[in-house]
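Model: Ready when you are.
Researcher: Fold this.
Model:
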Amino acid sequence: MRAKTISAVIVAAVISIQFIPVDRTNPIGAGGPEISEDLQWALRRSCYDCHSNETRWPVWAYVAPISWLVVRDVDAARAILNFSEWAAYEPGVRIALRSMVGPTTAVHRMPLWYYLPLHPDSQLSESERTALSAWASGASSEADTPAVNGSR
């Protein structure tokens, strides 16, 4: 009898937490970086789910408590770097962010290890890593490079 009561409480708790709201929004951005189409595709495929306002929310992002973790990770990633807000960043911030992208992807720190098994298409190829490093190494020219407004 006690096991049935505990099971019922657990089931009720799991059902109840589904009603705790989480904010899975994708607001309109200011615009993304002006880069080649190939590099844009690599960023969209590998980075935009967390580092933009164009997140593709997977099914598990709607099931608590996993949804809380997904939303927390996306919010934290957007706070660090949001490609959708690139045009709104000051030139010095764009230079710093851009110079960070190449080394971070070159040493396989991004995409995160636990993201890759669930999104195998987000794996960056060596040529994409090289292209991102080349783009990042040109960060000092960012002040002269406009962002693309409305790059959605």
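Researcher: Now this one.
Model:
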Amino acid sequence: MAPDDELALVKKAILLGKTVTGCFEWHERATDRVRHDPELRGFTTTAIRRLALEFFVAGGTIQQIKEQRPEYNDFEYYYKLIIPNPEFPNGLFVEMRLFDSDEDCPTVLLVNAHPQQK
């Protein structure tokens, strides 16, 4: 799939996540890690998902990154948002992956969140 086509599916999945369950959700393995991360200062997975959705709908930029980490070589790209938030001086980093490229109902899973490092 062409990079622009994949990015379009990611954007569609996030927008569908406003009203369709299952299109923009947390990966179940990531939820425990995020819930127990003290650096997130009590931000819940629900709150992070909501912030990501609101940020994107308001015109926030999604960055498509060529995956180079060997442990994630099943994916050609990952996607990230850096959400401005007063709790985090450099913003909140949110990582996502396209898990289902169905054109009618694509699925993007949130796989990580943490305070953005410089």
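Researcher: Key takeaway?
Model: The first strand starts at residue 24 and ends at 26.
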